[in-house]
Amino acid sequence: MSKERLQGKVAIVTGGATGIGEEAVRIFVENGASVVIADIKDELGHSLASSLGSEKVSYRHCDVRNENEVAETVAFTVEKYRSLDIMFNNVGIAGSYTTILDLDLTEYDNTMAVNIRGAVAFIKHAARVMVERKIRGSIICTVSIAGSNAGAAGHEYTVSKHGLLGLVRSACGELGAYGIRVNSISPYAIATPLTCDALEVGVAEVEAAAHGSANLEGITLKANHIAEAALFLASDESLYVSGHNLVVDGGFSVVNRWLPRIQK
């Protein structure tokens, strides 16, 4: 397949310094896009940009909870690369795994600020550019199977991802009038730094636990698989796909594992 699926396009990837975001940055650049990495992990972000060795990649410090920094990141992107075609809202935090009886509402508010409010701010400012310049852009949000199912994560993360999925559908309804597509990706468990840090375990432990409850045998879900899904939604191959939640979970969310286990 051609490695020019995003040729001439400009993208912002939030949370682009590590995990899914890092893989998306790499694959977007490989496919011809100019990319701004938006993150608060400055050392890792600058290192990634330098490692790709291209004028088509830049790092920008951006705390998505701060709307001014969001607006400045969008303005920086448009000034440097003269466009904004792809907005990949990928950044997120896991929040706590406490019971609802012990939920810390200050931490809850912070999870909402990063996972939902940050995406709202980037959609707002990115869409303004797309509408003004008549760009038929693609906006993508990383949700989670926790955005459709309960019990897969902590309460605040689950609530935030349900809200983010609602945001995708709501924004799709408005922005379709301008030819702007809005979609989401819902991954199953991946051993990203976010997941490992939240659970305080290593990559092997996360992958073993995920494999034990997964449905699709023979494959371990990796960050690059989600980046490939983002590439599809960012490219013209999905030109008439909008309002869609692309679930990448190997069938986990639609299969009751009880019967397969009995059959084994």
From TrEMBL:
It comes from the Eukaryota. SUPFAM superfamilies: NAD(P)-binding Rossmann-fold domains. InterPro entries: NAD(P)-bd_dom_sf, Sc_DH/Rdtase_CS, SDR_fam. PROSITE patterns: ADH_SHORT (PS00061). Pfam families: adh_short_C2. Belongs to the short-chain dehydrogenases/reductases (SDR) family. PANTHER family: OXIDOREDUCTASE-RELATED, SHORT-CHAIN DEHYDROGENASE REDUCTASE. This is Uncharacterized protein. It comes from Phaseolus vulgaris.
